[in-house]
Input
Amino acid sequence: MATLRQRFQQFWIGWPKRQAKVIPTPQETRSEQMVVPPLDIAPNDPIVAYFLSSPGPVEVDKLHLDSPALQAMKVAGVKLTIPLVSQGELVGLLNLGSRLSEQDYSADDRGLLNTLATQAGPAVRVAQLVREHQSQARERERIEQELRVARLIQHTLLPKDLPALPGWQLAAYYQAAREVGGDFYDFLYFEDGRLGIVIGDVTDKGIPAALMMASTRSVLRAVAQRLITPGKVLERVNDSLCPDTPPNMFVTCLYAVLDPSSGRLQYANAGHDLPYWRHSAGVSELRATGMPLGLMPGMKYEEKEVMLAPGDSVLFYSDGIVEAHNSRRKMFGFPRLMKLVGEHAGGMDLKDFLLDQLAMFTGPDWEQEDDVTLVTLQRSEGYGVSEIATRSTTRADESTPTPPSDAINRVPTDPWRALGEWRLPSEAGNERQAMKLVADAIQVLNMPTKQLEELKTAVAEATMNAMEHGNHYQPEVPVSILLRCSETAVSVSISDQGGSQPIPDPEAPDLEAKLAELQSPRGWGLFLIKNLVDEMHITSDETHHTIELIVNLKGESHASKNS
Amino acid sequence: MPARTLEAHVRHQPAIAIIDLHGEVNALAENVLNTAYVDAESQESAAILLNFSGVDYINSTGIALIVSLLARARKSHRRLLACGLSDHYVEIFQITRLVDFMSVFPDETSALAGWSVTAANE
Output
């Protein structure tokens, strides 16, 4: 074989079906051997069909086909070519130029070359497969390296520690999918004790998503230090991101600010999945409208707020959990998640509870399709009573700016202590819920039945008033109820969000006029309240009305004196 | 906690119709109350007795509905009576002065007896 090879000018031509991976001509070491550049053969070149149908050596000069490859071979001086075929596929050509002796190739030469080609074909195919495999391995390694970088970026930027807030439990969970997505969350700490909570999702995956996440996080952190309201923060972040955001890429993001001392949670949403708020009356979505970040400049973001009562919890999440599928291709879904948040009865951490439920749903062989991110916020049941009590003078007047958190315990002389705080959706019938919550919470005071019934009805009427006239029966706009007591009295403050409309003074209804049908038969609420409690105070600011009901615990009740 | 509806059943007795009420007297009770009232006055009874013994909640909107019924009764020179109210709702009827325009009895028996005496005297 060595002798034979020395006598021929030989070179390889790449397999026509793999034009992008042309097999280079083996490096020849002998000076007399001609080096011919690799030759690509188009898949539709007629010479391919000819080689497959005519195995064995082919004399190039005697072949007449309308074939660019054949023409190139002739130009390159190829005299004899032997197709290398493996399993019915043309994997290469053994091309030879003129013999050094200038003689034609003999029958023996052709026979020998044919035998060589028969053995070389499979060998070349194996070599090609090895080369392809190596190329794929390099590509896989490149992708893995990119994923490692993306994961590194994400893990570097996610918070290392959870906020430690007395009376609150925060938990976070982030599990990247194999193809790293753009989920992120963040906690921002403000000097006045408030806490910013961010959760977001970049549309893309891999390094582009990780870089977008990093820039969003940085811009948001910078803007949040200068601006207070979540809606304004998102507005500014959007305007900053828009010029540099690639087309078809955007970020959904929810930004909330918690005042741990009062439980007030302000939030704005740039197209992110709606958080779920679990409260004493069920589960509500925290809705606020706004476009995702990075799509269009000049966007406005609606801003909402809720008051989180002891025992309340909020789940912030990304779409990875709701879009998880089980083995039957059934999706976890929003309704299931919302239901589970409602079923979570406390005790076990909400995050762990949801992850357990997700694991049960997907089964052990689940291949995670997208990042799963959860951030949970829970206000401790019963904890913070003393805090709220010391802050209650501030809370009772909603127009007073919230003092910094270190003001807690600075008011030791405040006689009030909180017995409960609730938020109820403004839905018809929920005044009964308010009655029950207050009645249950003041059982410890052993109020006389008559006084208790009077207070319950007053609470129901004030709640109904707040739901109907203040919040216009919009379920997502809650009525806030704060129950406190001192040594001598019980106070119930009931607030709505209809501050722009004044509450009329409670006048005694003219029953004769009503019976004569000269007046509407309605209009009893405030009159009843006033006559059922010892004191009634109405305060308003631009956004809230608060009716405070006070019942004295000692001595004859106001209503009893009236009757 | 969704608002509960009111159920009303009318019993006709000589000269008086009794409307037995069960549930909550709130905004949802309007149609039920009006339908029962129309049924109750269909026999031209001189009096209609509202039996609240099955009622556990009356709010200010419910008070307004009762005021409406009282206005209709007075317009047609019919007596409207009430019985079965808890002590608390008797107090509410006192605060709203409904007791000035409708007799309130502890239970149905005393209401029928009281009405008989009143009717005999008139």
